[in-house]
Write a structure and sequence with these properties.
Blueprint: E1 2-7, H1 12-24, E2 28-31, H2 43-55, E3 61-66, H3 70-76, E4 84-86, H4 90-100, E5 104-108, H5 114-125, H6 135-155
Length: 157
């Protein structure tokens, strides 16, 4: 899978662990955030870099990391079609693509440890919108997603 990843300076340690995990699994990963300790990429830039890649359709899923997960989530969600959710649990990371059509998993370096982060990434990447849901639930979730898209159209000018 082609994945885009980014972090700002506070997320670098966790990003390094997640990136190594993804590469070990054979994913095609592009890093558009801070790469070394010598840089100082701030959260608005890291999140914007990643969100543009998702928005363009070049990448299906992204992983975004900062200190808490909050700042990059706020910025990434300013881009139409980008659904970034900050997660602290494997359960949530598994559910966000299924229920919310989330295409960006967000984590905080100061919140999630590397082992948990890698497990969250695995669950996030293994799932897609309405996967495993009953036909009735798929109709419901599709309706909710259409409502989200309508709200985007009304509010992203």
């Amino acid at each position: 899978m082609k994945i885009v990843i980014a972090c700002e300076f506070a997320g670098l340690p966790l990003k390094k662990a997640v990136l190594a995990h993804l590469l070990e699994q054979g994913h095609d990963v592009t890093d558009v955030g801070q790469k070394t300790e010598d840089e100082k990429v701030l959260y608005p830039q890291a999140a914007s870099n990643l969100a543009r890649k998702i928005q363009s359709g070049e990448f299906e899923k992204g992983i975004l990391i900062c200190g808490t997960g909050a700042g990059v989530s706020i910025v990434a969600n300013k881009f139409k079609g980008v659904y970034a959710v900050a997660c602290e649990s494997i359960f949530t990371a598994q559910g966000i693509p299924i229920i919310n059509n989330a295409n960006v998993l967000v984590m905080g370096n100061n919140v999630v440890g590397p082992k948990n982060a890698c497990a969250m990434v695995d669950k996030f990447l293994a799932n897609s919108f309405a996967l495993g849901e009953s036909p009735e639930r798929k109709v419901f979730l599709t309706g909710m997603l259409n409502d989200v898209k309508r709200i985007e159209d009304e509010n992203f000018k």
